[in-house]
Structures are given as structure tokens and as C-alpha cells.
Amino acid sequence: MTDAPKNDATPETPASTETAPVAADAPDVYSKEELADLSRALGQVVLGAGMSEQSGAFGLMREIVAAMQASAVFVGESTNPLLKQIVSDADPSSMDDPDKDKDASPESAQQTVEDGIAAARRTYEFLLAKGHADDADAWAQLLLTAANAAVQATKTGSFLGFGGEKVTASEQAYIQRLADTLGYQKAT
After folding, report:
1. Which terminus of the chain has a smaller tally of CB atoms within 10 A, N or C?
2. Could you tell me where the DSSP H helices lie in the chain?
3. Is the pLDDT of residue 125 over 90?
4. Of 135, 130, 154, 124, nearest to 75 (Cα)?
5. Where are the domains of the chain?
6. Could you report the per-residue pLDDT of 81-109, keeping only the tens digit for each?
7. Is 18 helix (H, G, I), strand (E, B) or coil?
């Protein structure tokens, strides 16, 4: 596989709200439950990225917002029907509450990281098993784009915005594990 493209989109970039056209005779490839599971998995991957380094409640929310903005831009620019369908058919009531992990202990933070990797593996393998390699590849690129945006959204160890690390070793390790899980080689 090739390296996933880096998404350098700014928060001001508007995301397209149009959905990909689907032929009237085309069957729905994915059920509502499968789409909800993919949406939840995206959230788990992003939360895992955010929890790979403790950045506090405000930092975690910034990371989640950055990941969702990058995801919206990526999906808006994508031609993949699955990604468009996930966005257009998403049910907000099926999403996990990100605030529940804001004060997580190191043990639960590590579990959140592991859950993110497991969700990526499970959903990627599901798409491959279903025989949709193009969907699996687009999905992997979306997950990597969202996770990269999350880890780049805040600095750790800074004081009033001065100093600190943009991406810490633990965040780099999470991205590398995610890339390995999805079969991507991350360029150093």
C-alpha cells in the first residue's frame, strides 16, 4: 500500500455537504447498523489519538474538533460512496460521549488507546472481508487523516502557548500503530 496523504486543511475550509449520487437500482451495500458501527469506530480512533497523550479536557476537545474538521474535508473531497454514506446516514444519537473520558486515569486512557486501535482493525478487516478493498482503503485513509489531525491539534508541555511538543512520542507511537494496523507504512 502507499502512504496515506497528509491532510493540511485549515478549519476555515468548508466541507461539501453533497452526497455521492447513487444509481436508483444500486442496492445498499451497508446496513444502518454497519454504518453506525463505522461511525463509532471513527470516534474511537479519534478518541484513542486524543488520549494517547494527556492534554486535558480543553485539549481533548480541540483534538476531537480538529479530527472531525479534517474528516469532513477528506470525505468532501473523496469520491468513495461509503465515506459519503457514513456522513449522510450518520445517526448522532449512536455516538459515544467524548466528555466521559476527559478525566480518564492513565489505565483508562491506555484502554481508550487500545480500543481505538482495535476499532480500526475490526472495521478495516470487516470491509476487506465484505470484499470492498476500495472502501477499506478509503476508510484507512480517513482514519489516518482524522488521527493525524487530532495529534497535531494541541501542544503538550507548553505554558500559555510557548514551548512544548507539537506531537509527542506517545502520539507518534499511536499513529504508527494505527498505520501498521491498516497496512500503511508511515514515512519518517
Report:
1. C
2. 32-51, 56-77, 81-88, 106-129, 133-152, 169-181
3. yes
4. 135
5. 32-181
6. 999 998 787 666 655 555 554 555 556 88
7. coil
